[in-house]
């Protein structure tokens, strides 16, 4: 299983073939021994990068939940002049009883 400990400022998780095999089993993924051998150093490198990030002093940094500020892209819902029913239907022959007439849907 994982050898979890506090080394320096970051938390260090030791990646082993057994840990990868265990996680792969939970995910129902079959890995060969060659794949396990390849994943151990790759995953250990990823975790070491996160350990380096843990060393940064972020005490005075405000959390950011989005990389850019989100703004409402919708316009105000203001009442404006619009077509009357007669104006809307004036350029079509496909109308009936004050509505646009479309193909039958069965």
Distance between the termini: 61 Å
Mean pLDDT across all residues, rounded? 85
* Low-confidence runs of at least 5 consecutive residues: 1-10
What proportion strand? 5-15%
Q: Give the H and E element order.
A: EEHHHEE
The proportion of residues forming helix, as a percent range, comes to 25-40%
| C-alpha geometry | elongated
Query: Multimeric state of these chains?
Result: single chain
Q: Major beta sheet, specifics?
A: 2 strands, antiparallel
| Total count of helical runs of at least 4 residues | 3
Helix/strand structural class: alpha+beta
Reading side by side through the largest sheet, how are the strands ordered?
1-2
Number of strands: 4
Question: What report would you give on this structure?
Answer:
With 106 residues, the chain is α+β, with helices and mostly antiparallel strands. The chain has a domain at 3-54. The protein is built from three helices and four strands; from the N terminus they run E-E-H-H-H-E-E. The chain has helices at residues 17-26, 33-54, 85-89, and strands spanning 3-7, 10-14, 95-96, 99-100. The strands form two sheets. It has a two-stranded antiparallel ribbon with strand order 1-2. The protein has a two-stranded antiparallel sheet with strand order 3-4. Strand 1 and strand 2 (10-14) form a beta hairpin. The chain is elongated. Mean pLDDT is 85; it is low at 1-10.
